[in-house]
Amino acid sequence: MPDVNGKQKVLVVGAGPVGALSALYAAGRGDDVAVYELRDDLRDPSTTPLNFTKSINLALSERGINSMRHAQCEGLLDAVLKESIPMHGRMIHGRGQDGELYEEPQIYDAQGRYIRAVDRAMLNKRLLDYLEQMPNVSLHFNHKLTGADFKKNVAWFEQRTLAKTDHAQNPTGNAPTKLDKDRPKEITVDFDFMIGADGAHSAARFHMMKFARLAYQQEYIDTLWCEFHINPRSSDSSFAISPNHLHIWPGGSFMFIAIPSMDKSFTCTLFAPESYFTALAPLSAKDFVSSFSKNFPGVCPELISPEDLRQQFTENPHLPLLSIKCTPYHYRSSVVIIGDAAHAMVPFYGQGMNAGLEDVRVLFDFLDGHDVYSESPKLATSRKERRAGALNAYTSQRTPDAAAINDLALRNYQEMSAGVKSPLYRMRKWLEESVSLYLPSLGWSTQYSR
Fold first, then answer.
1. pLDDT tens digit string along 84-96?
2. How far apart are CA 157 and CA 204, in angstroms?
3. Which among 7, 235, 253, 313 has the fewest CB atoms less than 10 Å away?
4. What are the residues facing 87 on neighbouring strands?
């Protein structure tokens, strides 16, 4: 296998946004890159992401934007931003003491910085399209990682004949073909370096744990989520509510949010304890709407009809929220895990995907800094040794950084579901932004600017 001279053979497990971006970084540095994905081609509209329904909107922040900027793929970032919607702040919805509905905007940043709403499928498609154009990249869909030897740098994959479209918590019961019953064909793939970007239920992490002394912590919080949909206005096909805000209906221990889409609809999510979902399920149609109207005033029937609301609640899966911390993120020079595979987090800080994209930039900064891509004959160590040093440095820096974002995400649920209505919260936010804006010499930064 090549080490000091020649190209590295990089194996990327997972073709989601984080895996695809890592493949772009590696391919741009001249590596031979092979991307293996459990599911069918993610650009196919019939392919459902493993832990999402078919339409999912995400918040894209500077972390993710900067990581794509450094991918050095001409036109990539412009194409993504062109299909995104700026969200300058939150829009808090409620009902006043006079019984009237109200909307209260809360900007994210006093200096005008903002996040963007992006469609996950669009982002994934753009990244995969760029990868497909690169001569040193091959894409392999419907391949399941079944084993790996990180001392010999060999991996085994099953070639699946039936696309995997269900979720572990919501199986669709795909019927196996005859070949599936007999056992799918297994292939052997050698590599110099594996990047595991295959999500919270990572196979790469599972197999790495057999070699690395990996400390692992997993927590399911007592909150489920269910997706809903707000259609454009029927009168003129415009946005039903402001497109430039993240809309929140805070409810204390639960909340309803809405994020704009390019087709002028909104992707919405109900976050609530499992007991709340259990209590809603048996209610009559009238009581169901009444409960929703009481807790999330202005949603039904104003934005979603009673029939659509009940149908979406019944038909869309009620999925759990998982938080994962582990360390180390690597084993020797052979493998590193990034994104949700390393630090899955709850979505309340809007940084899960962004942190994963940032992993890619930080990882390759370390690889570059340790001369992994240098061809100088004067280097005293082999490429393999330099790569091991880079991965060790990456784990040392990235583990506490990702753990901090993970903790912020957990804590932000209370802020979004209850704190945004508190006068004390609004006063604190005003004070933080004023100090940051008018006394910059103090070095104070608000939470969203860091």
1. 999 999 999 999 9
2. 11
3. 235
4. 115
State the amino acid at position 5 in one-letter form. N
* Residue stretches of the chain with pLDDT short of 70: 1-6, 48-56, 162-182, 417-422, 425-426, 428-430, 433, 437-438, 444-450
d(CA 118, CA 10): 29
Nearest in space to 249 (alpha carbons), one of 299, 286, 309, 289: 299
Strand order in the sheet with 215-230: 101-107, 89-95, 245-250, 255-260, 266-272, 215-230, 319-327
Joined together, the tokens standing for residue 208 give: 């790495």
Q: Cis bond leading into 328, ω under 30°?
A: yes
Question: CA-to-CA distance for 215 and 203, rounded, in angstroms?
Answer: 16
Handedness of CA 20, 26, 28, 32 (dihedral sign): negative
Phi, psi of 181, deg, nearest 5 = -65, -40
The reported pTM is 0.90
Q: Which residue has the tokens 């450094």?
A: 70
Tokens read off for 117:
């709403």
| DSSP character string of 4-58 | SSS--EEEEE--SHHHHHHHHHHHHTT-EEEEE-SSS-TTSTTPPPTTS-S--EE
What is the spatial order of strands in the sheet that 154-159 belongs to? Answer: 143-149, 154-159, 185-190
Helix (H, G, I), strand (E, B) or coil at 94: strand
Cβ 165 vs Cβ 40: under 8 Å: yes
Alpha-helix runs per DSSP H in 70-226:
76-82, 120-132, 178-182, 203-208
Residue 214 buriedness (CB in 10 A; 0-12 / 13-18 / 19+) = middle
pLDDT at 47: 73
In angstroms, the CA 266 to CA 301 distance is 15
Contact call for residues 259 and 267 (beta carbons, < 8 A): yes
Q: What was the pLDDT predicted at 419?
A: 66
pLDDT tens for 111-168 read: 778 999 999 999 999 999 999 999 999 999 999 999 999 999 999 999 987 555 444 4
Predicted local confidence at residue 169, as pLDDT: 45
List, in order, residues 6 or more apart from 335 with CB less than 8 Å away. Answer: 148, 150, 193, 194, 195, 196, 204, 208
Give the Cα separation of 157 and 187 in Å (integer). 5
Which stretches of 66-140 are assigned E, i.e. beta strand?
A: 85-87, 89-95, 101-107, 115-119, 137-140
Residues 6+ apart with CB under 8 A from 66: 358, 361
